[in-house]
């Protein structure tokens, strides 16, 4: 019996040898090998992702049960980020609301803007498992028919270094970020922090594409770091197959120490203040988060 229990828990050998510690990756990995908790079998807490091995990193939710998005599933899907906010606002759904199979439903509490509380916004920033000079990222998102856009809100993107935001103007030596957002006119825009931005807050690059209510929209963005000393970085965005942004004059860095190394998974209204906050509870749907060295949804 002891042998069976040890095989299931994975860490009991360390326990009986005098150690009470075992890494989450070793526990979940060994447990899965015995056929227990098998949906955790891909977890890795060693800082790597499929990108570390020249493979696309794709996250969908078809493998999960309908209902609350659990902490163990979050750790497995996102490779054990250091912190998280808003897991209580996420649920796995299926049926007509889902894109295909199962999708993620994301809640926005009424009266809340910005991202300052662990329970009122969704936010985490997992490592991409390496430093990259060029990557594509993409996902699918659906806004319900009665969505209240207010003045705007953030959607996922990628970044590097400190992944600057919140009015922290990049110097070229600290970090940068590229995130999609919606604006007050219910259009999708890229919200970019870079050393040459015109003001304190992020540079808004308009796609001129309105949000299509109650329809899935597929977004793909290519980011290429600039050559040192040149403004030749790239931001290229497709929405539903159409190129809507194609900038080839970007400067993200002034040092070779900066690259693309962070996924920015964030959902919140704002800006800051009551005038950015929705007057009632809101929600959107999300699926097929992907980061890759090659094009994901649309050929480049």
Describe this protein's structure.
- The structure is a single chain.
- The protein starts with a helix and ends in an 8-residue tail after the last strand.
- It is built from four helices and 16 strands.
- Helices cover 10% and strands 38% of the residues.
- It has helices spanning 2-9, 12-16, 24-33, 71-78; strands at residues 57-59, 67-68, 90-94, 102-108, 122-124, 127-132, 134-142, 152-161, 175-183, 187-193, 203-210, 216-224, 233-239, 242-250, 260-269, 282-292.
- The strands form two sheets. Strands 1, 2, 3, 4, 7, 12, 13, 14 and 16 form a nine-stranded antiparallel β-sheet that branches. Strands 5, 6, 8, 9, 10, 11 and 15 form a seven-stranded antiparallel β-sheet that branches.
- It has 300 residues and is mainly beta.
- It folds into two domains: 1-41, no CATH class; 58-292, Jelly Rolls, CATH 2.60.120.
- Residues 1-41 have low confidence and may be disordered.
């Amino acid at each position: 019996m002891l042998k069976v229990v040890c095989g299931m828990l994975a860490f009991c050998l360390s326990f009986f040898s005098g150690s009470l510690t075992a890494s989450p990756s070793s526990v979940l990995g060994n447990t899965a090998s015995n056929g227990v908790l098998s949906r955790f079998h891909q977890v890795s807490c060693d800082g790597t992702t499929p990108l570390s091995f020249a493979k696309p990193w794709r996250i969908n939710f078809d493998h999960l049960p309908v209902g609350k998005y659990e902490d163990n599933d979050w750790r497995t899907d996102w490779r054990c980020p250091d912190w998280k906010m808003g897991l209580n606002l996420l649920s796995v759904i299926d049926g007509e609301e889902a894109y295909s199979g199962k999708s993620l439903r994301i809640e926005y509490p009424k009266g809340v803007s910005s991202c300052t509380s662990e329970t009122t916004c969704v936010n985490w920033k997992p490592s991409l498992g390496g430093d990259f000079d060029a990557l594509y990222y993409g996902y699918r998102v659906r806004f319900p028919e009665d969505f209240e856009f207010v003045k705007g809100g953030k959607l996922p993107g990628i970044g590097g270094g400190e992944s600057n935001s919140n009015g922290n103007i990049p110097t070229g030596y600290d970090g940068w970020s590229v995130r999609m957002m919606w604006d007050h006119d219910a259009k999708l825009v890229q919200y970019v922090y870079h050393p040459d931005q015109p003001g304190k807050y992020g540079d808004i690059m308009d796609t001129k594409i309105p949000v299509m209510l109650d329809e899935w929209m597929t977004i793909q963005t290519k980011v290429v770091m600039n050559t040192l000393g040149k403004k030749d970085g790239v931001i290229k965005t497709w929405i539903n197959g159409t190129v809507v942004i194609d900038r080839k004059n970007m400067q993200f860095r002034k040092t070779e120490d900066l690259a693309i190394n962070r996924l920015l998974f964030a959902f919140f209204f704002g800006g800051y203040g009551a005038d950015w906050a929705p007057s009632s509870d809101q929600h959107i749907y999300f699926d097929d988060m992907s980061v890759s060295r090659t094009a994901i949804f649309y050929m480049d």
